[in-house]
Structures are given as structure tokens and as C-alpha cells.
Amino acid sequence: MKNVFMEGAISPDFIANSIAKHQSKTQIGAHDIFLGQVRADEIEGKTVSAIEYTAYEEMANLKFHEIREKTFSKFDITCMHIYHSLGKVGVGEICLFVFVSSPHRRTAFEALEFVVEEIKAHVPVFGKELFEDDSYQWKVNT
């Protein structure tokens, strides 16, 4: 079982290197990528400046693994990678990176949507929205 968590924001270099590593896998015809980015939401007159992510890591990694297995059994995909941030991630930075590869584009599109929706619905990752005035609230997934 893989640990999907990374401390802090997921860098553009990490994302680019992950994509580049797949050039040698010549059975792949399509990649689809989801990048979750922290928004500067305005909530009750306050602006979000960052989200601090925490998780029950062992339980969350198990859920990520179950989602991975379910996705491979449901879709004809070649590979899939999931990375999620822990700790503080600033506005504009990437907190979730999901990368799905398949021989065909339609399958990649459908599998990616399935994975992201499953993550949002079932993985125990919690976000504390930090406001510019140093107050906070717990984020509700939508």
C-alpha cells in the first residue's frame, strides 16, 4: 500500500516529472490529470489565505488504496497516481494531483472523474481554512 501524502504544496516540477516518466510506456494513448488548487474563497467577509490539511493517514491511505483497486477493476487503465498534500498549502498552490493513464481517452476521462469523486466522498482528509486575519474554520467538501 502506497503513502499518497506529501508535505506542503505539490510543486509544478513534481507534476511535470511525473508526466515525463510515462514517455517510455508506449501502450498509453491518453493521460488525464486533475489538479486541486487552493482557492481564495471569501466566506462571511473573510478571505481564505491557505488550507492546512490533516488526515488519519493510515485510514486515509487504506481508502486511497481501495479507490485505486476499485478503479483498476472498473476501468481499462494502464496506471494511476494520487498525491495529496498534508500541512499548509497557500492560495494558488496545488493540494491534490491525480494522474490516470489509459490506452484510450474516454476511459481516462471517466476513470479520472470516478477517482476524484470517490476521494472527495470517502477519504478522511480534513482541511482547516486559514483566513487572512489568522482565524479559521473547518472546510466542508462539496
TrEMBL record:
InterPro entries: MoaE_sf (IPR036563), Mopterin_biosynth_MoaE (IPR003448)
Pathway(s) of this molecule: Cofactor biosynthesis; molybdopterin biosynthesis
Documented EC number(s): 2.8.1.12
GO molecular function, one term: molybdopterin synthase activity
Reaction catalysis annotation: 2 [molybdopterin-synthase sulfur-carrier protein]-C-terminal-Gly-aminoethanethioate + cyclic pyranopterin phosphate + H2O = molybdopterin + 2 [molybdopterin-synthase sulfur-carrier protein]-C-terminal Gly-Gly + 2 H(+)
Keyword Repeat part of the UniProt annotation: no
GO BP, one annotated term: Mo-molybdopterin cofactor biosynthetic process
Stored Pfam families: MoaE
Domain of life: Bacteria
Keywords assigned by UniProt, alphabetized: Molybdenum cofactor biosynthesis
Family that this chain belongs to: Belongs to the MoaE family.
Assembly description: Heterotetramer of 2 MoaD subunits and 2 MoaE subunits. Also stable as homodimer. The enzyme changes between these two forms during catalysis.
Name under which the protein is recorded: Molybdopterin synthase catalytic subunit
Originating species: Flagellimonas hymeniacidonis
